[in-house]
Amino acid sequence: MIRALIFDFNGVLADDDPIHMEAFRKVANEEELSFTNDEYLEKYLPLNDWDCFKTLFAEHGRDLPPLKLNDLIRRKSIYYFQAIAEKTVLFADAAKAVKAAARRCPLAIASGARRDEILHILKQAGLENCFSAIVSAEDVKFGKPHPEPFSLAHERLREGDASLKVSECVAIEDSIGGIDSAHGAGMRCLAIAHSYGPDRLRIAKPEWIIDSVADFVSWMEKEVSK
Asked: What span, in angstroms and rounded, lies between the C-alpha atoms of 189 and 172?
């Protein structure tokens, strides 16, 4: 039985992975560092900002003191918000999917995005009240592919229903690292082929795969009990 749904955010609901990549690239270039688009998809896309910069600096043999890391993240956030200030970044059918899901069962977000980014986009779309819990990058010690984000989302959902089992939660993800995170937390996973093709996602053995969030409602009507 499926009694709760836990959404990843970037690449699942928000079509902003390219914006994050370019904001990350601007800061990297300011530090005289670089990465290719393929490297971003392979190494950085599933990671939160903290782990992105730690990985980038480690790849180039550079030290990264905590104060420097915080400054890098601050600068990236400025570029990100500048890019989304005048646009809606949700996938076209994301709001419809969230509203339909919220009528069926409790929802949460487990994301490597910063809380202010998530809330800005949800409020812009009028979706902030659809979610019973939001787990952002600031809430966890270990980001994806570690299971902590999904485990914490389950814990927070249990505050509203102590009987909710982790096996009754389904994660909605778009990356191999995200699928691994969900499975590590003991959840089944619906993979959405936004960021990677279905064949690539099958490597992580998600229980279901759909082509886009436009297919989510049809999947939910088959799989989620009323």
From this structure: 6
